[in-house]
Write a structure and sequence with these properties.
The protein is of the alpha+beta class. Helices cover 28% and strands 22% of the residues. It has a ten-stranded mixed beta sheet with strand order 11-12-13-14-9-8-7-6-1-36.
């Protein structure tokens, strides 16, 4: 029942939890999805919508993949395997790479990219008796398994493979025909040297580690890789034969400085190889099935919908809360100039999709920044270590940089003093990811124990260098905007992060009841800091550097996205965003994939769904590889993952205390379904759009935070609780309302008198599209869609995929 309009809640108000969800971050983790008796669950569908969209998204290979960018990939955040033809011997062998996100060197004197680099482990080759003449593979997303056959001129090899979710074991089951019973597995240890060595000169005094030692342990084989710095990593494997079937079991362990990895790896393989593949797969599949059901999204572009679900699979294969923060290529290490974790864009983009998709169990950034915070003090110059923190551009999993080659003894430069690149803002940007985790869960322990203390010291580093100018404003000395080149006073990258940081600290202190002695200084910064440098083309790099060349990074636009500090509230602000965006993407030459994901998300902020889709189309056409991976000078995975976030931004936005449902959809997406999409304020959003009209919106509150929703339903609405009773609400404008929801309560918004079907179901695609992978052609797409959707457009029951 509407009442008179009221002012929109303040940003401080919408940050408030109302009540803490309890527990501490590192002992109980992030809160699990709440349940309540009055939560209105969608009506049961005649079949499983998750299984339907996942089966439709399976990647297929009917041609042999020849590189990382083409082949299947398996992982569990730690152990990873990319699968493709053995280079130079495609007809003779298939390579199963063996890599692990914890395996690294430990020689900090050579820096993060050599001395602390992730180290390659090696690979197995599956070598048939005959020459390979064909294959038919399917990466079954629902089960996180690869299955299919390899055909040779002497027979066939029926195969299925997984990286077990809990045991961290690669299991590959092969059932050969009579002519292929003599196939074999061969392990090839890699040289334990930084992958950067293939691209850059070695530092003085640096050399690779000694060769691995292969030994037998009562039928279990181990490749023990000693490290010059101490410690070891070990690859252990065993093959078991049961009838005609042979199963390979592989485990990797790393230890430093002790040499305990061998014993752990032997125990893991011996525990796993007692089980046949089918038994081993039971709890593995159960984890993945539950993982996918945390959210649901279906849209009518078949190619993009499949891409989206593959990114969820990819993220859950590459990330876990207790795993290292993803390196540039995740757990699937390949020759690369970037063999560690990058903090000036990559890490942030890799994890954005976990919030809306309701996968906070993958949040390694919050865990790592909390666990290794003491190392962040060592990365700033000694005079500032008592009250400041910073993170360098690159680190190892423990957030150590290795002193950037020992030139300075610390990794983060000093503004105005430390050439060549004092890149100061990376920690504050990483902490924005932590803030997103807080806002999407309203878990007060994240705010109190991680965000506030770390952000306070990250902003403190800036405060040491702010200088009053003759204009009465506070100015920053020269710092570096990631990747553009040259240092500038009042660098927008840093001014924008400083502004967001001070505002967030003030709001957080009020929520936590902290009377902080630095609060007056934070308020002074917000009142007096220099305005963001602009010119006739929009945002500049900084006061000394215009934006005047092609540049892939949107470091100068962070206040627009993802910080949402500049959002187009006034005509002048809107014009500034539009001309800045157009100017940025208008320079061809250096644009890369994440240029287009950033442009898509900024377009979504402006409500321009057609533009957002256009930018995603450019990304798909120009950059995304057959298996949805991405490459620049080497393999990198942040861009496809950030494209999933761009889709989120088109479907739902929740910045500024307002949940915006379907804010930037292109006209072609007339039908769309979303279920349990997580928003800021710890709401779970479910909604459906049919024939270009939003039919219903449901919000379930996990924390009792203020609920303001721009639902987009035209005309009068009904708002009902989980039992169908009308709720009081307040109209804010024609398509926005505020409703009070306590923790565990829900609200269903429909057009007045409408009683839509609340089933969760996939929408019918607008047209055929080829599968991802390497299918022979796209001719099967129409048949597959017909199998998935019945004549009435509803879901048809899908059988098991073998």
């Amino acid at each position: 029942m509407p009442s008179s309009a009221v002012p929109r809640p303040s940003r401080r108000t919408v940050l408030a939890t109302g009540s803490a969800l309890g527990g501490t971050l590192l002992t109980t983790g992030l809160p699990t999805q709440a349940t309540a008796a009055d939560r209105a669950e969608p009506a049961a569908n005649p079949s499983d919508p998750w299984r339907t969209v996942l089966d439709d998204a399976d990647l297929v290979w009917q041609r042999m993949p020849t590189a990382w960018y083409e082949g299947p990939f398996l992982g569990n955040g730690f152990l990873g395997s990319g699968i493709y033809a053995e280079p130079g011997a495609a007809a003779k062998a298939v390579r199963f790479n063996i890599q692990h996100s914890e395996v690294q060197d430990h020689r900090p004197e050579f820096g993060s990219l050599f001395g602390l680099a992730r180290l390659p482990i090696g690979y197995f080759t599956l070598e048939p008796v005959g020459a390979i003449t064909g294959l038919d593979w399917r990466l079954v997303l629902h089960d996180a398994e690869l299955s299919g056959t390899i055909t040779t001129d002497t027979g066939t090899l029926a195969m299925r493979a997984m990286v077990h979710n809990d045991r961290s074991v690669l299991a590959v089951e092969v059932t050969p025909s009579a002519g292929e019973r003599g196939f074999r597995w061969v392990f090839h240890p890699a040289d334990a040297i930084s992958p950067r060595a293939a691209f850059k000169p070695l530092p003085d005094g640096y050399r690779g580690n000694p060769p691995a030692e292969v030994t037998d342990h009562d039928g279990v084989t181990a490749a023990v890789q000693p490290l010059l710095a101490g410690g070891q990593h070990v690859t252990v494997w065993r093959e078991r034969t049961r009838g005609r079937t042979r199963t390979l079991y592989v485990h990797v362990a790393h230890s430093y400085p002790h040499t305990t990895a061998l014993d752990r790896a032997l125990r893991s393989v011996r525990a796993a190889d007692r089980l046949p593949y089918s038994a081993l797969a039971v709890d593995h599949r159960a984890w993945w099935h539950a993982c996918y059901r945390k959210s649901f999204l279906s849209l009518p572009d078949a190619r993009i919908q499949r891409f989206y679900w593959i990114q969820l699979y990819k993220a859950a294969s590459a990330a876990r809360r207790d795993a290292p923060v993803m390196a540039t290529s995740g757990p699937w290490l390949e020759p690369t100039p970037w063999p560690n974790t990058w903090w000036n864009l990559n890490a942030q983009l890799e994890y954005w999709l976990i919030h809306g998709s309701n996968h906070l169990e993958l949040d390694a950034i919050t865990r790592a920044l909390s666990e290794f915070r003491d190392n962040l003090a060592k990365e700033v110059a000694p005079p500032y270590r008592t009250d400041s923190l910073g993170i360098p551009r690159t680190t190892d999993p423990h957030l150590v940089n290795g002193a950037a080659g020992t030139l300075t003894g610390y990794g983060v430069g000093v503004p105005g003093q430390d050439p060549p690149t004092p890149e100061v803002g990376d920690l504050t940007w990483a902490l924005h990811n932590v803030w997103l985790s807080y806002r999407h869960t309203m878990n007060e322990s994240i705010l109190r124990d991680v965000l506030f203390p770390l952000l306070r010291k990250a902003i403190n580093y800036y405060l040491h260098f702010l200088e009053p100018g003759t204009d009465g404003k506070l100015h920053l000395p020269a710092t570096f905007s990631p990747e553009y080149g040259g240092n500038s006073r009042d660098c927008n990258y840093d001014l924008m992060l400083l502004t967001w940081g001070c505002r967030t600290l003030l709001e957080s202190a009020e929520l936590l009841g902290i009377d902080d002695a630095l609060a007056p200084r934070w308020r002074e910064v917000l009142a007096k800091r220099a305005p963001y440098p602009t010119d006739t083309n929009g945002f500049m790099i900084g006061a000394d550097i215009p934006f005047a060349k092609s540049h892939r990074h949107y470091s100068h636009l962070l206040a627009v996205y993802p910080l949402y500090e500049v959002t187009g509230r006034t005509p002048d602000e809107l014009a500034l965003i539009q001309k800045s965006l157009a100017h940025w993407v208008g320079f061809e030459g250096a644009l890369q994939g994440y240029t287009f994901t950033g442009a898509a998300s900024m377009s979504a902020l402006l409500g321009k769904g057609e533009d957002a889709l256009k930018y995603l189309g450019e990304l798909m056409t120009r950059f995304i590889q057959p298996n949805t991976m991405y490459k620049e000078s080497g393999p990198v995975i942040e861009t496809p993952l950030s494209a999933a976030q761009s889709l989120h931004d088109m479907v739902c936005q929740s910045w500024g205390g307002v949940i915006r449902v379907f804010p930037a959809l292109p006209a072609a997406w007339a039908d769309l379904a979303v279920h349990d999409f997580r928003t800021q304020g710890a709401f779970l959003l479910s909604a459906a759009r049919q024939d270009g009209t939003t039919r219903w919106v449901r919000l379930f509150s996990e924390a009792g935070a203020p609920c303001v929703v721009r639902h987009g339903i035209t005309g009068p609405v009904d708002v009902r609780d989980g039992r169908g009773r009308l709720l009081r609400y307040t109209d804010i404008d024609a398509a926005t309302l505020q409703v009070t929801l306590h923790k565990g309560e829900s609200a269903l918004i429909t057009a007045e008198g409408d009683r839509p079907d609340l089933s969760v179901m996939p929408v019918r695609p607008n047209g055929d599209a080829p599968r991802w992978g390497l299918p022979l052609s796209g001719e099967d797409a129409g048949e597959e869609v017909a199998d998935v959707l019945g004549d009435d457009g509803k879901v048809a029951l899908q059988g098991e995929v073998s």
